[in-house]
Design a protein that fits this description.
alpha+beta; 50% helix; 13 strands; 5-stranded mixed sheet
Length: 581
Amino acid sequence: MKYECNLSVKELEKRTSKDYLVTKKMLDIDSVEFNNLEDGDKIALSYLVKAARIIEKIHLMIDSHHNLAFEKYLLDSIKKGDKKAKLTHILFNAQKGIFALDCESNLVKLAKNLELMPGRGLYPDDLKKEDFHMILINMIKENKIDMVKKILNQRSVVEWDEEKKELIAIDYVDKFKEEFEQISKLLLKASCVSTNADFNEYLRLQVDAFLKADEMLDAYADKKWAMLQDTPLEFTITRENYSDTMTETVLENEELKNLLKENNIEVISKDYLGCRVGIVNKEGTDYILKVKDFLPLMAKNMPLNDKYQQVINSGSDISQTMVDVDLIEVAGDVGAFRAGITLAENLPNNDKMSLKIGGGRRNVYHRQIRFITSKDAQKKLQERLDAILDKNLHQFYDDKMDHPFTIGHENGHSLGPKEGCEALGKYKSIIEENKADMVSLAMLDVLTEAGLYTKEERNKIIVTYAADNMLKSKPEITQAHRVRSVMQNYYFIKNGAIEISDDGVLFIYIDEMVPTARKMLTEIIKVQLSGDFSRGEKYVLDNFIWTKEMETMADKLRKISKRLNGEVEHKLADKLFLQKD
């Protein structure tokens, strides 16, 4: 196929300029964190960075059938002095692919004559949603149940078998056999030099999982990873399914939905792969671990907690570890800057086998992503507050309070219903992210009374959350994290906890926020317990209301911050990648 860059030089120059392209800097070459490591761990990191970059290649193939070929076209064009290709490649590396939504929810398409398909690189490029549904209906009626189960599984790539004239599913490990074998060799080398025995055991379990397509091998690796607490290094294979907008559409077809139910076929959205490499920060981890002692109290205070089983053990033995990490590399899905980049992750997700065999979960927090360090960034933040937040509330805004809120959010993923949420289809991620936010807010009074937060910190967390929850544009329904923000803002307005004036200024009734959050959390859990797609859809659409006042505020925010895209700078990782064995 012949490729061509889609954006003009003028548009590319704008999107890659300092004002429009934010840079998140990972650990630098001369960082104290790296220099303080044992020699064996430094060598191990070079292998882990190389493994991460192969994961990135797999991510690109999963994300679009065209990504690798288009990148080759860009690199070949750059060699010929093509300025447009050079600027396009900057955005390609930032958003990690041809297609992405920017910070104002505009679709950025880097290649001409290509359209974003719901199946991305996980389904045949020309497969339409309606055709997909009919094919599955016919397969079920022909009793091809096992293959339908594989097609609707989180760890498969779906292809068209020309000989059989039907869809087939191939496990990731088999589909990307060569890449996973390369990664396994690197992880094995890392496990031979890294200084921590538990970490090395995890790496070897991950090697096994990459060499054979077996869900149980993944489970053993995940289970061990979720137990890691006192290790110097961090290496995570992230597997999350927010980007798959094809698989979950099957629940929109009533005939197909009924057939799936009759044949006990579970629908699980497909995983996108990412990788995180870093160094565990002990001081930051100690702060985060303070919260662990309060998890049983949080579980006890969850609404309707007698109606479901929670992921964590609600007793004294909490099956959850937590680390704060200085990042060296974020590759693939976890490093893709698509409207934003994640502050933390709570894994494995509920659909993973490791949780079914008694494994726990692990929260990893991203230090370099959350820091606001430059004077320019601080200035922009103050401009934002002056424009949208009532002056009397400025005393309660503290950007450092985003961190404890995020800690509450990530722990919120481990609380609430453990099963049944997959039936909510394309709305499940929106509802789950909404739940996690509301857990963080709803528990503030409980945790303040228990001594984790002071009253002042509680107020600052509330005001900082509310101010930061305001968006620059109405998001697309596929943007789970941003849709939930709109839902929350509308819900808090409707329930009298916040107001946005006609001229786009936010006022927060601080003491109304926690009760309102608990009310919303209760509603969310009822929806999750119902396992009813229609009810989930109604709940989301009833609250996903973008008001005139929100648009007024968004217009002000767009004038203050021109940012449209972002990129990650990883100089230390680049150096480690080039390091010889």
